[in-house]
Design a protein that fits this description.
The complex is a heterotrimer. Chain A has a single domain, classed as Orthogonal Bundle (MetI-like fold). Chain A contains 14 helices and no strands. Chain B is mainly α. In chain B, 71% of the residues lie in helices and 0% in strands. The longest helix of chain C is centred in the first third of the chain and has 26 residues. The radius of gyration of chain C is 23 Å and the shape is globular. Chain C folds into two domains: 189 residues, Periplasmic binding protein-like II (D-Maltodextrin-Binding Protein, domain 2, 3-Layer(aba) Sandwich), CATH 3.40.190.10; 186 residues, D-Maltodextrin-Binding Protein, domain 2. The relative contact order of chain C is 0.16. Classes of the chains: A mainly alpha, B mainly alpha, C alpha/beta. The interface between A and B is large, with 106 and 112 residues.
């Protein structure tokens, strides 16, 4: 019954799809990044010619690229720890009780994660609005503001990241909560018996047991934030003055709005390399103490 | 998992005083803190609903009225009229339905990676995981060309195809299925069951929790997908709800009431699905060996 | 400097996938249609159905508009709405595959980019022959024929027009002691300052931070242009510097709100910004948002520097070069350019015509607002057709001006950067 082909039949369809829509595009991008492909070239390939590494040279000399790099770094540094810490905290607290009420609270926290980006843009754009937005009104009640959430180049990154944190916490909370529920009750009770405080129990019993889940959440969150795109795209289009443009958004603008496909492809390859390097680094540094 | 075995502390289950007291007192404090957080998290949705039933004049007023003075459903009516809502809804559901096929493919792959040894397993699995790291913006044009070459542009299948399987999903299935005892599968083989039957009648039913998770995640992404339906569809009859709503998003004259009504239409159905499946979701992740 | 043929070879290796796929697609895309080989539309049998890309959310109205066309010619028309924000992705993927609509609406700011792709059919005299409504002389001079040609080739015909005029709140102006709307930019700046002094949170004027044509209009009004005689973009002119001083001066006076998400309709209706330069779409939005404001606002021609040349914007209609229904597509363009059709579209969707005869129709001239638009259209120019205005030249222009106005960047530093960023951009 069990032939040698069986596993290939099983993994075949999914793998082929992932190769076609995941791996092949990055290979194409790598090829295109060595050319001067633009709108005209896209319609008529005979108008495309090789450009060697010129796109990469231009990219590394482009202040807008570096601005987007810095912004992305800012997003990652602000967003990843926030998402991980906030979702871990919520998960730990939610795990204190299995009551119906806590299950209801759990739903509330998951709510943002199930909301489409189009709806998020509408709702948050409205809340942040500087003319009739609710947030500034609430601040004015306590004598603060008005705050230029989406207009101040200094603040806009924080405003945009806040929405992404709000949206990104839910799924991770659920993943961590699930992992927590796999921690045997007995350990906690034993620790309590020994007179360990809640905080101590959490720190020295629970967290070590969650290592793999936390690693998983961290790695996927880092990848997601390095590709930061949606919130900035829908709320600010990367503005004002490029101060909320992430790398992904920069690539998108060069590629689709600017029709500079060669240039955008070079940026894609660089972004991919950065993501791969960061991810491998994370996995390597943790491999020592994680067993799957 | 193996770390748990190395725990030296003796396991005791006797009902003990301090632990009990702790548990009785804590939930109230924790509950209050969590409630505040939940209110803050869910607040934008409450504001969305409230604003959707306000007349435009009120939703653009400053200072804003927290509660509507006149409740109106005219914007929902307007949406239904302008949007061809029924058709967009059917398309969206069709995309979601097609995506469910992807679930089976991901489950198959997860099973293959979890329970079989074969040549090239490690590199292929690595390659699968690599696709998580590829920026979405890169894939758009090549993906379009591929779909165009196989004649799937302007079809609902083409809309669903690029996101049919995800590395994240394959990974979750693999994690879960490694926890299925190999003996069960071997026993079935000895009894003469074919591989298809083992997968369909043993592995899949045992994977119900993770399937529930993936159903919800698939539903969410299918429901919310925006850019692909737009790019792939050359016929407005194939637009999904997100695209229809984007059409209403005018640059010059904002109408917050209408926008909030549109957002509410997007959110509520997903919410219902989530509430129905939510118990399975945590369970699914819990059993997936992600601890 | 490796030799070029090697590089070319390398590039094509990277392209193998694309090439192969593109080849497949063009084979699959060519539908077996009864191509009449560019013959005269009138003689051809019903040719279609035609797929038309319409920008924004107007397909229902468009269906209504073309119903008589389908009735008289038997050609079915299928309109597809494309959200303005997503036009680029839609167009790019269509160009990449060669598989597009039959007819599409092209915003003038995108015209150059789309024409460069070669995806639009060249509409030379021979092609247009037999379609009297498409004759160049029928249309507004600012967009007719050569005015919107790219590289000397006409690839589109005018469809709807749009211009910029001054919107003002007559009630607020007179309350502030301003008897009539400003007629020069100097007056406007002074009036704006007066109006901004009404109190905290009140302004005199509004500048949309995304409006790249505005500084260009100002430059025209001071007697200059942003394109030199050689066709190259040139911002290093006295007229442009005057425009910069005006633009940034309005901010320096604190006459203009600095929030990027400011809603112009709401700002105008609430009176926070009682003056702004905007297009006819704003009038529609005001009527829609606050019908009871009627009589308290009006429009006036653009203020002058030495002249008051305004922006001529809008959209043209183009035919997809690889369409299988060329004859039908041209018939449709001809129908859309009929004065009657243009007037009807104005009634349905509020878009101004590009056909002169339609602009002179009593349906339009009886409306005092439209009379102002029509007069302004006669003195309006299009933004120069440089490649990728929105993403390159226009963006650099806005970045420079906004960085001076909003973040206090030194003027000369910002301008030097602008000159460098737009060097080599040309309408040729």
């Amino acid at each position: 019954m069990r032939t040698r082909a069986t596993p290939y039949v099983l993994i075949g369809p999914a793998t082929v799809l992932l190769m076609a829509f995941g791996v092949l595009p990055i290979l194409v991008a790598a090829g295109v990044s060595l050319t001067d492909m633009d709108a005209a070239g896209l319609g008529d390939l005979s108008k495309v010619s090789g450009a060697g590494l010129a796109n990469y040279r231009e990219l590394f000399g482009d202040p807008a690229f570096w601005q987007a790099m810095r912004n992305t770094g800012f997003y990652v540094v602000l967003g990843v720890p926030s998402v991980v810490v906030v979702s871990l905290t919520i998960a730990l607290l939610l795990n204190q009780s299995q009551s119906r009420f806590f299950r209801f609270l759990r739903s509330c926290y998951f709510l943002p994660a199930i909301t489409g980006i189009v709806a998020i843009a509408l709702v948050w754009g409205y809340l942040y609005n500087s003319q009739f937005g609710l947030i500034n009104y609430l601040l004015s009640l306590v004598g603060l503001g008005p705050v230029q959430w989406l207009s101040s180049p200094a603040l806009v990154k924080v405003s945009v990241a806040l929405v992404a944190i709000w949206r990104g916490t839910g799924l991770n909370t659920i993943i961590l909560l699930a992992a927590l529920q796999g921690v045997p009750r007995e350990y906690l009770e034993a620790a309590a018996l020994d007179g360990a405080s809640r905080w101590r129990t959490t720190r020295s019993v629970v967290l070590p047991l969650l290592r793999f889940a936390i690693l998983f959440v961290t790695v996927t969150t880092v990848i997601a934030w390095l590709q930061f795109f949606d919130e900035a795209f829908v709320l600010t289009k990367g503005g004002p003055l490029g101060s909320s443009t992430s790398i992904s958004l920069f690539l998108f603008q060069q590629g689709f709005a600017g029709a500079r496909f060669g240039y955008a492809s070079a940026g894609s390859v660089v972004l991919f390399a950065v993501i791969a390097a960061v991810t491998l680094l994370q996995l390597r540094s943790r491999r020592a103490d994680v067993d799957y | 998992m193996s770390t748990t075995e190395t725990m030296t502390r003796p396991v005791s289950v006797s009902p003990l005083h301090p632990a009990r007291r702790l548990r009785r007192r804590r939930p109230w404090i924790v509950g209050t803190v969590l409630s505040l957080g939940a209110v803050a998290t869910a607040f934008p949705f409450a504001w969305m609903i409230v604003s959707a039933v306000k007349p435009r004049r009120e939703s653009m007023a400053y200072p804003p009225h927290v509660l509507p003075q006149h409740v109106t459903l005219e914007y929902f009516v307007q949406l239904m009229r302008q949007l061809d809502f029924g058709r967009y809804l059917v398309n969206t559901l069709a995309v979601v339905a097609i995506s469910m096929v992807g679930l089976v493919l991901m489950a198959m792959a997860g099973y293959g990676f979890a329970k079989f040894t074969f040549r090239g397993k490690e590199p292929i699995f690595f390659l699968v995981l690599t696709t998580m790291m590829i920026p979405v913006q890169v894939t758009m044009i090549p993906t379009y060309l591929i779909l165009n070459a196989v004649g799937l542009t302007n079809t609902l299948l083409g809309i669903a195809m690029p996101t049919l399987v995800s590395a994240f999903g394959v990974f979750m299935f693999r994690q879960f299925m490694t926890t299925i005892p190999t003996e069960v599968i071997e026993a079935a083989r000895i009894d003469g069951a074919g591989e298809a039957r083992i997968f369909g009648q043993i592995v899949l039913p045992m994977s119900r929790p993770i399937l529930a998770v993936q159903v919800v995640l698939t539903f969410i992404s299918g429901w919310n997908s925006f850019l692909w339906p737009l790019v792939i569809a050359s016929d407005q009859n194939l637009y999904t709800l997100s695209v229809g709503i984007a059409l209403l998003n005018q640059q010059v004259a904002t109408n917050p009431s209408l926008q909030m009504a549109a957002a509410a239409l997007m959110v509520v159905p997903v919410l219902v699905v989530f509430v129905v499946f939510q118990r399975h979701i945590v369970q699914g992740f819990a059993l997936s060996g992600l601890k | 400097m490796a030799n070029i043929s090697t590089r070319r070879a390398l590039a094509s290796v990277g392209f193998v996938a694309v090439l192969g796929l593109a080849a497949c697609s063009s084979g699959a895309g060519a539908a077996p249609a009864a191509s009449t080989g560019g013959g005269q539309g009138s003689a051809a049998p019903p040719d279609g159905p035609l797929t038309v890309w319409v920008m924004g959310d107007a397909t229902t109205k468009f269906d209504q508009l073309v119903a008589p066309f389908t009735q008289s010619t038997g050609i079915k028309v299928k309109a597809v709405a494309i959200p303005w924000d997503s036009v680029d992705q839609k167009m790019t993927t269509a160009v990449a595959s060669g598989d597009g609509p039959d007819v599409l609406q092209v915003g003038l700011s995108k015209l150059r980019t789309y024409a460069d792709t070669g995806a639009l059919l060249t509409l030379d005299d021979a092609t247009l022959a037999g379609h009297p409504n498409l004759a160049t002389t029928n249309f507004l001079d600012g967009v007719a024929g050569k005015a919107t040609a790219v590289g000397g080739k006409v690839t589109s015909v005018p469809w709807i027009s749009d211009t910029r005029v001054l919107f003002y709140r007559s009630d607020i102006l007179s309350a502030a002691g301003i008897a009539k709307p400003p007629t020069t930019w100097d007056e406007l700046r002074a009036d704006a300052k007066t109006l901004a002094a009404r109190g905290k949170g009140q302004y005199g004027y509004y500048i949309p931070q995304w409006d790249s044509p505005l500084p260009v209009e100002m430059t025209w009004d001071f007697g200059g242009d942003i394109v030199g005689a050689d066709g190259n973009v040139n911002f290093d002119t006295p007229a442009f510097r005057q425009a910069v001083d005006l633009y940034t001066g309005l901010y320096a006076d604190k006459s203009v709100p600095t929030n990027s998400d400011f809603d112009q309709t709401q700002g105008f209706v609430s009176g926070v910004t009682p003056m702004l330069v905007s297009g006819p779409y704003l009038a529609a939005a005001i009527k829609d948002a606050a019908a009871d404001l009627a009589g308290k606002w009006s429009v006036a021609p653009l203020p002058k520097g030495t002249t008051n040349t305004s922006l001529l914007a809008g959209s043209n209609m183009a035919v997809w070069a690889k369409t299988a229904h060329k004859a039908g597509a041209l018939q449709l363009l001809d129908f859309l350019s009929k004065p009657d059709t243009q007037v009807k579209w104005f009634q349905l969707n509020g878009d101004l015509p590009t056909v002169k005869a339609a602009l002179a129709d009593s349906t339009l001239t009886s409306d005092p607002l439209v009379a102002v638009y029509a007069a302004q259209l006669a003195n309006a120019k299009i933004v120069p057709l440089v490649p990728n205005w929105d993403g390159a030249t226009g963006k650099a222009l806005l970045d420079a001006l906004n960085s001076i106005a909003l973040t206090g960047t030194d003027k000369e530093t910002a301008l030097t950067k602008l000159f460098a960023a737009t060097k080599g951009q040309s309408i040729n």
